[in-house]
């Protein structure tokens, strides 16, 4: 039987220090810490994070954190915080026993747990650490390399706007600990969220941002209306988020895409695809023949020609793909069956 231990009453910053740990005291200490805005708790090398759903003043003060931890050794970096994880990975890469060995930080959790925000703060911290390393390694050609590294850092941080829900960013460093590149890995793309968002959750932010941020002429060109007119944006019963300005976020997204080299044509094509997805979400189907329900077609009110135009395909081809199931048999034969 799992019983009580006096250590269960202590608000441990690292719950590995707790004796006779089991679920009840674990939840208790996390709850007590949460009530005093201590949302981060270590369990050895793993950081537990609880989304506070509010802003906590000075929680992400990078300069203050660096000043407090500057004289500490790796083994002393035990203040439970995202920055502790980022600093440990950065120091291990530059100074640890496995110097120059690639480091990974895994951010995982349920939808709404705060993974995106955590990733943003980690990226910002690593960018600052990289900049400080750059400033401490002044030498021949310093001005040119500094400009290059600053550009890379800016691109890495701006990529958060574009990759928020769609990928993982992998940062590359040189021997002096300065950012020298970045590569992107697609990771856990939640395709089902588009067609079936969870109750009380929004679809991908970009849909709402686009509808709030495009000007009247652009909305008219794409034939877009308010978000509450689209099935994909209303099925989760959540359209707006308190404290979130979708129009301002869309402005930030466009600025990021401009600086990252997205051409105007590429951005326009991206918004066309997003618009087509919203319109397809509202599409309905009817039988080809009233007495024959084995084959269907788009209902007359579906703007098939417009959707096809947005996607750059022929309307007939789009309808065929949307109403036909294609199966490849074990012998390589291809079967087409009307839905």
TrEMBL record:
UniProt name for this protein: Myosin motor domain-containing protein
Record-listed ATP binding positions: 109-116
SMART domains to which the protein is assigned, alphabetical: MYSc (SM00242)
Keyword Cytoplasm: no
PANTHER family: MYOSIN, MYOSIN-LIKE PROTEIN
Domain Myosin motor, chain residue ranges per copy: 10-339
UniProt source species: Aphanomyces astaci
PROSITE patterns given in the database record: MYOSIN_MOTOR (PS51456)
Pfam (any one): Myosin_head
Keywords: Actin-binding, ATP-binding, Motor protein, Myosin, Nucleotide-binding
């Amino acid at each position: 039987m799992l019983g009580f231990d006096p250590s269960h009453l202590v608000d441990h910053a690292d719950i590995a220090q707790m004796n006779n740990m089991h679920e009840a005291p674990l939840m208790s200490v996390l709850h007590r810490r949460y009530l005093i805005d201590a949302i981060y708790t270590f369990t050895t090398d793993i950081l537990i994070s609880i989304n506070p759903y509010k802003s906590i003043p000075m929680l992400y003060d990078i300069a203050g954190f660096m000043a407090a931890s500057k004289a500490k050794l790796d083994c002393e970096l035990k203040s439970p915080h995202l920055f502790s994880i980022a600093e440990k990975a950065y120091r291990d890469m530059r100074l640890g026993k496995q110097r120059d060995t690639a480091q990974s930080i895994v951010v995982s959790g349920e939808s709404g747990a705060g993974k995106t925000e955590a990733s943003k703060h980690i990226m910002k911290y690593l960018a600052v650490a990289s900049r400080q390393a750059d400033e401490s390694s002044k030498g021949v050609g310093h001005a040119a390399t500094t400009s290059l590294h600053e550009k890379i850092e800016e691109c890495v941080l701006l990529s958060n706007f574009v990759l928020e829900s769609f990928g993982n960013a992998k940062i590359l460093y040189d021997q002096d600990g300065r950012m020298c590149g970045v590569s992107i890995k697609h990771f856990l793309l939640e395709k089902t969220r588009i067609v079936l968002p969870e109750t009380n959750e929004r679809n991908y932010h970009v849909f709402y941002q686009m509808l709030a941020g495009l000007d009247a002429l652009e909305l008219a060109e794409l034939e877009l209306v308010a978000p509450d007119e689209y099935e994909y944006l209303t099925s989760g019963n959540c359209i707006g988020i308190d404290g979130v300005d979708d129009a301002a976020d869309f402005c930030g997204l466009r600025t990021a895409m401009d600086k990252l080299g997205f051409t105007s044509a590429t951005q326009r094509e991206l918004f066309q695809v997003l618009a087509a997805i919203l319109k397809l979400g509202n599409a309905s189907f009817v039988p080809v023949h009233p007495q024959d329900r084995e084959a269907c077609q788009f209902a007359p009110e579906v703007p098939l020609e417009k959707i096809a135009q947005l996607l750059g395909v022929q309307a007939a081809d789009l309808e065929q793909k949307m109403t036909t199931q294609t199966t490849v048999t074990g012998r390589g034969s291809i079967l087409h069956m009307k839905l």
